[in-house]
Amino acid sequence: MAEQTKTSKKSQSPGPATTARQLALTALKQIQRGAFADVALDRALKHANISPLDRKLSTELVYGIIRRQRTLDAIIDNLATKSANQQPPELRLILHLGLYQLRYLDHIPGSAAVNTTVDLAKQNGFSGLSGFVNGLLRKYDRHPDTALLAADDPVRNIGIQHSYPDWIVQVYLEQFGTEGTEQLCNWLNQPPTIDLRVNTRKITIDTLEAKFQAAEIEVQRLTQLPQALRLIKHAGAIHQLPGFTDGEWIIQDSSAQLVSYLLDPQPGETIVDACAAPGGKTLHIAELMQDQGTVWAIDKTASRLKKIQQNIDRLGLTCIQTKTADSRDIPELINQCDRVLVDAPCSGLGTLNRHADARWRQTPDSVTKLTELQTAILQQAASWVKPGGTIVYATCTLHPQENEAIIQNFLDQNSNWVIDRPENNSGLAPLLTESGWIKVAPHQQQMDGFFMVRLKKA
Ligand SMILES: C[S@@+](CC[C@H](N)C(=O)[O-])C[C@H]1O[C@@H](n2cnc3c(N)ncnc32)[C@H](O)[C@@H]1O
């Protein structure tokens, strides 16, 4: 079933000034030439003299259009004589800007969406085509429900309706069926949730919750997660919320919090986080160890690793050591660790809501390359574990090649390792599959998509 198109016009105000659309167009042009969406948007916003409201609209337009580009192109294909990829590239973006507002933004009246887009066309060298822009957008606005045709092929149809490449739809379909895939695609098209992890070394969850309530910040508890609060409503920047500067909490999605519980770190142990940056799980592990023992935070990318240090200081932890290195090759750690976490680099198919352009950047080939890296890191990291010790392998993807297949292959080649299921009475039990791993499906559990499994060395 197709996603609902915009039906209500909640406000009849003319909407924010054209500068928000022009700024969005500037960023979109850079993305079209290969820039990352967040980098292009930051660059465009950096020197812009626009109101916070316009800033918000530009951000919504850029991320929304990048996400929905396949759907928007399919509408152009249907409504124009020339297909989307036959249009001049910049005009195609201008059409995306108009169609996106009409289809997905309830707070912008249709007339404002059309008129500002026509103006944008004129201001950007397409005066001669402004009548075409006007006609196409008005045609859409008259019959939004028939502007997007259904495709005969079910994979292609979901791909067009929800704006995903066919290969990702196929990966989801094989695991979740048609209805589940549509729910998942919908979830990953929504703005991401914001979860906090309470630093229980500094404050209890009850006290922090009360502090937020007093400041009229709405939060929600999450089952199975004793340290998690989901931000529902707040005003202003996140780092200005109560308790941030004092290190009473950190931003971390709830499914990422599950990973450290599965690792089950104990005070006094030696633990390595093999792919640690920017460090959310390293910090959680140190907290669970009551800051006693050693956590090695290793990552290949020094700039990403630097971010851990700021949080180590803010959260007041002392047992973490950082090291820039390639975890495929650190022989000096062999048999040194009680536990190891491999939170592997992955295709991120469980967190596409957090990275608007990721669905277009990943390909089946990039996934194959990632599986080679994941296999090599896991194999090396396993050698660091002492006999009787454990390793947790985790990813934020929902691709079986990067998850189940990696583990099956590892177990086939390493007969001294077995899956170590968490206790039945642990908070993780409800999420366990029969195979012994945890697979979080965002549309079912309302948190980031994740895969995690604990293995034990004989
Ligand atoms: C999924 S992220 C880790 C997120 C982190 N665990 C957290 O909770 O904040 C994967 C990380 O693996 C790192 N990485 C990629 N290849 C690596 C390698 N060969 N050795 C060590 N780290 C690597 C990347 O730089 C990236 O920071």
UniProtKB/TrEMBL annotation:
GO terms for molecular function: RNA binding; rRNA methyltransferase activity. It is an enzyme of class 2 (transferase). Its main location: cytoplasm. Residues 184-458 form the SAM-dependent MTase RsmB/NOP-type domain. It catalyses: cytidine(967) in 16S rRNA + S-adenosyl-L-methionine = 5-methylcytidine(967) in 16S rRNA + S-adenosyl-L-homocysteine + H(+). The active site is at residue 396. CDD domains: AdoMet_MTases. Keywords: Cytoplasm, Methyltransferase, RNA-binding, rRNA processing, S-adenosyl-L-methionine, Transferase. It comes from the Bacteria. S-adenosyl-L-methionine binds at residues 275-281, 299, 326, 343. GO terms for biological process: regulation of DNA-templated transcription. One of its GO terms (cellular component) is cytoplasm. Pfam families: Methyltr_RsmB-F, NusB, RsmF-B_ferredox. Its EC number is 2.1.1.176. PANTHER family: NOP2 YEAST -RELATED NOL1/NOP2/FMU SUN DOMAIN-CONTAINING (PTHR22807), RIBOSOMAL RNA SMALL SUBUNIT METHYLTRANSFERASE B-RELATED (PTHR22807:SF53). Belongs to the class I-like SAM-binding methyltransferase superfamily. RsmB/NOP family. Specifically methylates the cytosine at position 967 (m5C967) of 16S rRNA. This is 16S rRNA (cytosine(967)-C(5))-methyltransferase. It comes from Romeriopsis navalis LEGE 11480. The lineage of its organism: Bacteria, Bacillati, Cyanobacteriota, Cyanophyceae, Leptolyngbyales.
